[in-house]
Amino acid sequence: MSKNELIELVDDTVAIQEVPKFKAGDTITVTYKIKEGNKERLQKYQGVVLQRVGSGPSATFTVRKISGNIGVERIFPVASPFIEEIVVNKVGVVRRARIFYFRNLRGKKARIKEARR
Prior knowledge:
By secondary structure, the protein is mostly beta strands. Helix content is 9%, strand content 42%. It has one helix and five strands; from the N terminus they run αβββββ. The chain has a five-stranded antiparallel beta sheet, with no helix packed on it. The termini are far apart.
């Protein structure tokens, strides 16, 4: 079995759930399943998408939120079985695919212009 055949086999077997379209600058809420011992709970993580990387089942996206005056970033794999749902709250207008400059902005400068729908 060649490398390409193996990659195709893995792509076919990994079921990717339907993910809404979002890009850098959008504000999203990710509902994430957390296992603690034998219990499960759902946690919502709301923030601004800094980047999307990759394609297919290995794609990831980075979400940044401010928690208690401290910036917190989290990287989520798109094909993670622990992601319950992704909701796009606001569609932002940015000119970059990776908005790492957003990390240095505070207060009113950290606002992202909202797209008209």
